[in-house]
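Below is how a single chain appears once it has passed through the pipeline. First comes the sequence as given, then the structure the pipeline wrote out for it. We keep one example in the README because the format questions we get most often are answered faster by looking than by reading.
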Amino acid sequence: MTSNEIRDSGFIGRQDEMAVLTAVLDEVLSGIGQMAMLAGEPGIGKTRLAQELANHADSKGARVLWGRCYEEQGVPPYWPWVQAIRSHVREIDPDQLRSEVGAGAADIAGLVPDVK
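Resulting structure:
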């Protein structure tokens, strides 16, 4: 994301972080698997940063899935992943899903029973 695009979106600050995240996104879009995690104290702008990256990814045609962490007791293991995968499963054609998960379907179904 260029500085002009960031400025036009009303997003201020976090240009260094956004540069790292957009570089990761570019690698993902070129076929190099990546993962980035935003962590830190409440209220420092993690969600806003993620929203800006999601908007940028969407503008490049990427599919964006969301999951959120909660600090409450009783939250199931891998909850952010479950949320993201579940929303994808419910929006996608079953044949395309089978093609995407391939041999990993059983493992994924262990976390998200919606995957059959």
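The chain is about 55% helix and 0% strand.

See the next section for the split statistics.
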